[in-house]
């Protein structure tokens, strides 16, 4: 990955999550998602908590108020306030990181990671949960091959230990002809043809 490319990847992933969340229809919050047993609301809560956790790991401050891996499925008031604040906090935290900094603290089991690996790990979380929400609510997929390619590169470096924590399902066979988006989703244990995804 070229120096500084991680900033572009992270910005696009953050925007993807923000845009898909803002596109959730009024009757879409309790719909099922590709995250087994989680509704759209729960995926949003999880994604929000993860962005807060990255920000807190880098600069300190408040992390998520509830366990991102046990989202309640209930958000009082404006459902997007928390996500917007979390994305802003994450972006500010990463803005203070340079390519040549020492390894950056992360909330992942691996701990500190090189800047570009940690930032793209943060982007991976945002982008893939944006996809979860988009396909669950009938929105266009925010993933495309140019975004999926660096995400998959970093996913292959960090995901295996995370499967032991239940963060990802076992990898699926994407097939030899899979594009980068399908390869990424399959590696993360998702079905690229999940019900509702336009082919």
UniProtKB/TrEMBL annotation:
Residues 10-134 form the Mycothiol-dependent maleylpyruvate isomerase metal-binding domain. InterPro entries: CHP03086 (IPR017520), DinB/YfiT-like (IPR034660), Maleyloyr_isom (IPR017517), MDMPI_metal-binding (IPR024344). It holds the Pfam family MDMPI_N. This is TIGR03086 family protein.
């Amino acid at each position: 990955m070229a120096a500084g490319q991680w900033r572009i990847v992270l910005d696009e992933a953050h925007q993807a999550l923000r845009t898909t969340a803002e596109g959730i229809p009024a009757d879409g919050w309790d719909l099922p998602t590709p995250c087994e047993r989680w509704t759209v609301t729960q995926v949003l809560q999880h994604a929000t908590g993860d962005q807060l956790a990255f920000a807190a790991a880098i600069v300190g401050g408040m992390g998520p108020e509830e366990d991102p891996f046990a989202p309640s499925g209930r958000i009082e008031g404006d459902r997007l306030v928390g996500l917007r604040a979390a994305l802003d906090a994450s972006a500010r935290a990463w803005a203070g990181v340079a390519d040549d900094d020492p390894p950056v603290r992360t909330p992942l089991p691996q701990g500190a990671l090189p800047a570009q690996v940690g930032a793209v790990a943060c982007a991976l979380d945002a982008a893939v949960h944006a996809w979860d929400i988009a396909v669950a609510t009938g929105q266009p997929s925010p993933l495309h091959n140019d975004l999926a390619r660096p995400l998959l590169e970093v996913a292959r470096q960090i995901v295996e230990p995370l499967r032991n924590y239940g963060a990802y399902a076992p990898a699926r066979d994407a097939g030899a002809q899979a594009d980068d988006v399908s390869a990424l989703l399959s590696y993360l244990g998702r079905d690229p043809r999940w019900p509702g995804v336009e082919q």
